[in-house]
Amino acid sequence: MKSLKRIIILLVLLIANFTVISSARAASAYELDRDARQALHTLYTKNPKAAEIANQATAALVFPTIVKAGFIFGAQGGDGPLISNGGTIGYYHTSAVSYGLQAGVQKYSYVLFFMNHKALNYINKHGGWEIGTGPSIVIVDTGAAKSMSIKTLNKDVYAFIFSQKGLMAGLGLQGSKITQYTPSE
Fold it and tell me: 89 has which bridge partners?
């Protein structure tokens, strides 16, 4: 009987996690574009090296708000535009699920800078991307950004995670699934 109660509790928590994540997916194209530009401004203000990388990038996939929630089972998700040459060329959803010692809710932003057409073509050709497969990616933290040189950029994609709010241990992109979708107008 105890194990049945545990299973029911875990299922309720899992459904609650997905409800939290799904609620973040209601933004219109206009709102996503506006929020993405605001998120980029925040990133560039706090991390000038990100602005330098952006100037070298072919495109940027901006997720202005990712919601991550979990209690043993966890889920995260959010939407954002793919921006190239100052214009939006598509919209994508990112999501991931996890299992383990975790509890809490957190919001954050992240940007993927595509440094070449090969990486950009990969996400467009496949209608999305599961991070950890395909193009090589480097997650840039504040310390690493300070020592980076634009002349030594040799990876396909550089990721910046920023504007964390809330309490949840651990942030990562490995295993995140990114899929193309069409937001409401």
Answer: none
Nearest to 61 by CA among 35, 29, 90, 101: 90
DSSP for 105-133, please give it: EEEEEEEEEE-SHHHHHHHHHTTEEEBTB
181 compared with 62, residue with greater pLDDT: 62
Owner of token pair 């809330």: 166
Distance CA(22)–CA(14), nearest Å, equals 12
CA pair distance 131, 174, nearest whole angstrom: 5
* Residues pairing with 137 in the sheet: 157
3-class DSSP assignment, residue 99: strand
- Helix 29-46 / helix 48-56 crossing angle, nearest 10 deg: 120
pLDDT value at 63 more than 70: yes
Helix extents (H) in the chain? 2-23, 29-46, 48-56, 117-125, 142-147
Q: First CA to last CA across the chain, in angstroms?
A: 49
State the pLDDT at residue 151: 55
| Four-CA torsion 150, 112, 163, 171, nearest 10 degrees | -110
Q: Please give the Cα distance from 54 to 50 (Å, whole number).
A: 6
